[in-house]
Design a protein that fits this description.
The chain is α+β, with helices and mostly antiparallel strands. The chain is built from one helix and five strands, in the order E-E-E-H-E-E.
Length: 90
């Protein structure tokens, strides 16, 4: 018997995450995965960034077995963009 092909996960390692203020709370989006519904319980940017970073790093760890970090940069209209990667946070 030959070696079987190793199945690749259906979801890519996240590269970018966004948090955006909306009328219904803060929404998060992960590139290649999708966008979450605004959560009225998330009341500020720091809380939204912590949630989005946790989701992105957990996805990379649980699905791909990789440890990543998120570096945040301000975007337009009060939104934030997080660059995800190994060793990006300083």
């Amino acid at each position: 018997m030959g070696r079987g092909k190793q199945q690749r996960p259906a979801i890519a390692v996240p590269q970018t995450v966004w948090v955006m203020p909306t009328a219904g709370g803060w929404a998060q989006a992960i590139a290649g995965v999708g966008c979450g519904r605004p959560d009225p319980a998330v009341v500020d940017a720091e809380q939204a960034k912590a949630r989005a970073a946790g989701t992105g790093t957990a996805l990379a760890r649980d699905v791909h077995g990789r440890a990543v970090e998120v570096r945040w940069e301000p975007a337009t209209y009060g939104a934030w963009v997080g660059r995800v990667g190994e060793g990006v946070a300083r």
